[in-house]
Design brief:
By secondary structure, the protein is an all-alpha fold. The chain has helices at residues 2-25, 31-43, 47-69, 80-103, 107-131, 138-158, 166-204, 212-238, 243-271.
């Protein structure tokens, strides 16, 4: 008799667990209903399953929000990473709060939450890279820079909830940032070469060759104009950088600007006629 009761009890318990699990997986389930279902699963001794479903549910909500937003990324090539970051980190923040209120500070669940958040950040970096403009454009540099600014700001806010994700974010972003910087400075070198070549043509044109005083005046004008064009090329890059991007990648940028300047000066010097060298 006891075995029969036990078998019936376990069968009913299993059915109830399945019903509660189904509730948590419904796309339209509300927050309160979700929390009630998760609490019931915990009472049935299914804490790990309940926590898994919590992460799954909020991950699904995040995915839906991202899918709605992605088609508009081309309309905001420089600023879309900030919106993606807001969507991502707001869900991570809410999930962290709910996990703490339902499951407490159990290290098992906390570690799973951190791992889930790290996966989501990896996903964020892929999304930004896959939806950004061509890496050699200033729009791509602006997008990458805005991603650094927004994401690190949100990471800082999450630290008050016990999540320290800034280091991981910087590690994940570094290859993409370096790729964008490299291709932007390659483009800048091509533009600087074009400027130097145009200046060479101007300096060697018949109008510039005589008389000597007119030649000097004309040459000065050409060189000043050349310098302004070069500064414009550099400004196009610097104007895309946010404070956080400067803080973490500024040394890299300064090194590249120095190399670009040396290359430009070398090309400009070679373009000068003998009397001006």
């Amino acid at each position: 008799m006891e075995a029969s009761y036990r078998s019936a009890f376990l069968k009913r318990k299993s059915m109830l667990e399945d019903q509660l699990n189904e509730i948590t997986e419904q796309p339209s389930v509300g927050i309160l209903e979700l929390k009630k279902a998760l609490s019931s699963l915990i009472k049935l001794g299914k804490g790990p399953l309940a926590h898994q479903q919590l992460l799954k549910s909020y991950g699904s909500r995040l995915q839906k929000s991202i899918e709605v937003f992605l088609p508009s990324c081309p309309l905001y090539p420089k600023t879309f990473p900030a919106t993606l970051s807001r969507l991502m980190f707001s869900i991570i923040s809410v999930t962290t709060k709910e996990s703490g209120s339902i499951f407490g500070d159990n290290p098992v669940y906390t570690n799973r939450l951190v791992q889930w958040a790290e996966w989501e950040i990896e996903y964020l970096v892929r999304l930004v890279k896959n939806n950004a403009p061509s890496s050699e454009t200033v729009f791509a540099l602006g997008a990458a820079s805005n991603c650094v600014q927004a994401s690190l700001t949100y990471c800082s806010m999450l630290e008050s909830q016990g999540l320290k994700l800034s280091k991981l974010l910087l590690v994940l972003l570094r290859p993409y940032i370096e790729e964008v910087l490299e291709l932007n400075f390659r483009r800048a070198r091509r533009e600087a070469l074009d400027v130097a070549e145009m200046d060479e043509s101007s300096l060697l044109s018949p109008r510039s060759m005589s008389p000597l005083s007119a030649f000097a005046t004309s040459s000065d004008s050409v060189l000043v104009d050349s310098g302004m064009k070069f500064m414009g090329i550099v400004e196009d890059i610097l104007s895309q950088l946010t404070p956080m991007a400067v803080l973490h990648y500024g040394a890299n940028v300064l090194t590249r600007i120095s190399q670009l300047f040396d290359k430009y000066m070398d090309m400009l010097f070679k373009s000068l006629p003998g009397p001006l060298r």
